[in-house]
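Postdoc handover notes: sequence design on the structure in folder B. Input tokens:
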């Protein structure tokens, strides 16, 4: 009898796991909703219960970037996955875009959800947004994880290959006959070509515990990531071995576990 009960439980767990894997994050009508945020309709999906956890994706992406992380964190947290302004299902017809604008959007979204503060995970451009959210709206961030972020857009922050690719794109692209989608894509490209422009001194205002992450083969220079961590008063640094830019994808299980431990444990000052 115990064998059959155990087998039944195993089958249920298998079915549940596969059901989670089949969720199309970013297109799940059961979990998704639009919120009026600072002149746009911001799309987000919410999973699980517990302390709020805000997920912020990177340039040109959507919340689906976190498809390997949402199932893990939603077992313990109320996961708020969003499509940033001008990304995914969040349409923005304006002709300009900035990281500061996006960080203010995220604070307003939390207000719309009646959430005072949240844990935050940001990847790539989302990592920049996470830092700016903590600087511009410190009361909104309990702890933050920023992976693959940069403070400025030149080759001292980005590896030369990426910077040269972006420069070539800038030099050879002609925008006169762009359609609406191409205009939006160009606006998103210019975001990373011209921004961010965050002085190191500004990082000193981040008061929440922070975990600063990058891969050892990231498109962000390791030296730049170290510099970010050194200028945040309560920061841990994690350079992920054998990893490129998508640390949370290439090292999903380790990333999820370490981030959860960081959120759960009191911050310890190292003297």
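Designed sequence:
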């Amino acid at each position: 009898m115990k064998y059959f009960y155990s087998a039944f439980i195993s089958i249920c767990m298998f079915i549940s796991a596969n059901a989670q894997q089949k969720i199309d994050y970013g297109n799940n009508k059961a979990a998704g909703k639009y919120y009026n945020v600072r002149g746009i309709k911001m799309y987000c999906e919410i999973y699980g219960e517990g302390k709020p956890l805000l997920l912020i994706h990177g340039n040109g992406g959507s919340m689906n970037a976190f498809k390997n992380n949402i199932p893990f964190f939603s077992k313990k947290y109320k996961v708020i996955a969003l499509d940033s302004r001008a990304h995914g299902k969040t349409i923005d017809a304006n002709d300009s875009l900035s990281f500061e604008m996006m960080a203010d959007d995220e604070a307003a979204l939390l207000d719309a959800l009646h959430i005072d503060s949240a844990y935050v995970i940001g990847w790539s451009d989302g990592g920049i947004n996470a830092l700016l959210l903590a600087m511009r709206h410190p009361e909104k961030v309990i702890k933050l994880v920023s992976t693959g972020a940069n403070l400025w857009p030149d080759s001292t922050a980005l590896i030369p290959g990426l910077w040269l690719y972006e420069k070539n794109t800038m030099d050879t692209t002609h925008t006169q006959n762009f359609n609406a989608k191409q205009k939006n894509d160009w606006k998103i490209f210019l975001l990373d070509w011209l921004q961010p422009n965050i002085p190191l001194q500004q990082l000193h205002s981040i008061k929440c515990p922070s975990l600063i992450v990058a891969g050892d083969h990231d498109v962000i220079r390791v030296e730049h990531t170290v510099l970010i961590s050194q200028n945040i008063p309560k920061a841990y640094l994690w350079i992920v071995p054998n990893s490129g830019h998508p640390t949370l994808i290439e090292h999903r299980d380790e990333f999820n576990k370490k981030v959860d431990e960081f959120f759960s444990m009191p911050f310890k000052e190292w003297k």
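Context for whoever picks this up: Residues 1-20 have pLDDT under 50 and may be disordered. Don't rerun without checking with the PI first.
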